[in-house]
């Protein structure tokens, strides 16, 4: 593992998170994504946490030289690691810092949540795009002027069969061409191998570790599985409530 990132989210406060009071589903767009109306759940982030997340974006995406990643997978070790929130805010911070086009992708077909984070409907989305031949822009929804969301989409048996197909790879390649940065939220590594698949079509994977619940052996197993198949960019230590000596990071 080449880098480690310490994101402190102990002061994160959720007000109605994932409990959307109002969500207006858009009509099926044609051509470019259309502006939609939605009431986004409120998420309060401590100032220190916000600063740490900005640094995370700078250390991962804004490196000098041609090796800086542009398509990155966010993968938790286990459920409730906080991966979705970290991925979503990384996309927002990246869009704000660079002013370049950024796309957030929900690659968690089994338990999609990025759409709820932004107060939107789930479908149509990535799984629907796999089954159709229209441009990927038909499935995108705007979060900001330069930030788009591609939700997970409909849970369809046909889409499940194509989940690791060349068709899905082609859709990710299409996003790579249209956006400067693509951030993909995936299921936890100790439950499904989706993070490995997406990592193979991305520039690397960030592993999210919950410091309060993730055992070292579990994190090591997830890390070994990823590094055997994809490029691991680093680890995000979430929910840290006490200082962790640097030598412990090296043991992951």
Kindly describe this structure.
This protein has 252 residues and is of the alpha/beta class. The protein has one domain: Rossmann fold, CATH 3.40.50. An eight-stranded mixed beta sheet has the order 1-10-9-4-8-5-7-6, with helices on both faces. Strands 2-3 form a two-stranded antiparallel ribbon. The radius of gyration is 17 Å and the shape is globular. The N terminus is likely disordered.
Question: Summarize this, please?
Answer:
The protein has 252 residues and is of the alpha/beta class. The chain has nine helices and ten strands.
List its salient traits.
single chain, 252 residues, alpha/beta, Rossmann fold, 8-stranded mixed beta sheet, two-stranded antiparallel sheet, 9 helices, 19% strand
């Amino acid at each position: 593992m080449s880098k480690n990132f310490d994101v402190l989210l102990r002061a994160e406060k959720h007000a109605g998170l994932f409990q959307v009071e109002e969500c207006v589903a858009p009509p099926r767009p044609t051509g470019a994504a259309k502006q939609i109306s939605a009431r986004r759940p409120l998420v309060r982030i401590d100032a220190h946490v916000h600063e740490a997340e900005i640094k995370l974006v700078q250390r991962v995406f804004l490196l000098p030289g041609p090796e800086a990643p542009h398509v990155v997978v966010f993968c938790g070790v286990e459920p409730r690691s906080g991966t979705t929130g970290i991925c979503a805010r990384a996309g927002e911070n990246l869009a704000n810092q660079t002013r370049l086009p950024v796309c957030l992708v929900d690659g968690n077909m089994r338990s999609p949540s990025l759409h709820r984070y932004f107060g939107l409907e789930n479908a149509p989305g990535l799984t629907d795009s796999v089954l159709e031949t229209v441009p990927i822009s038909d499935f995108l929804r705007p979060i900001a002027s330069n930030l788009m969301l591609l939700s997970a989409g409909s849970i369809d048996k046909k889409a499940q069969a194509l989940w690791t197909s060349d068709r899905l790879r082609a859709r990710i390649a299409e996003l790579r061409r249209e956006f400067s940065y693509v951030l993909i939220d995936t299921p936890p590594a100790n439950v499904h191998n989706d993070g490995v698949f997406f990592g193979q079509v991305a520039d690397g994977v960030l592993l999210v570790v919950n410091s309060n619940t993730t055992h070292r052996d579990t994190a090591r197993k997830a890390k070994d599985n990823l590094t055997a198949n994809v490029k691991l960019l680093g680890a995000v230590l979430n929910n840290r409530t006490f200082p962790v000596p640097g030598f412990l990071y090296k043991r992951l």
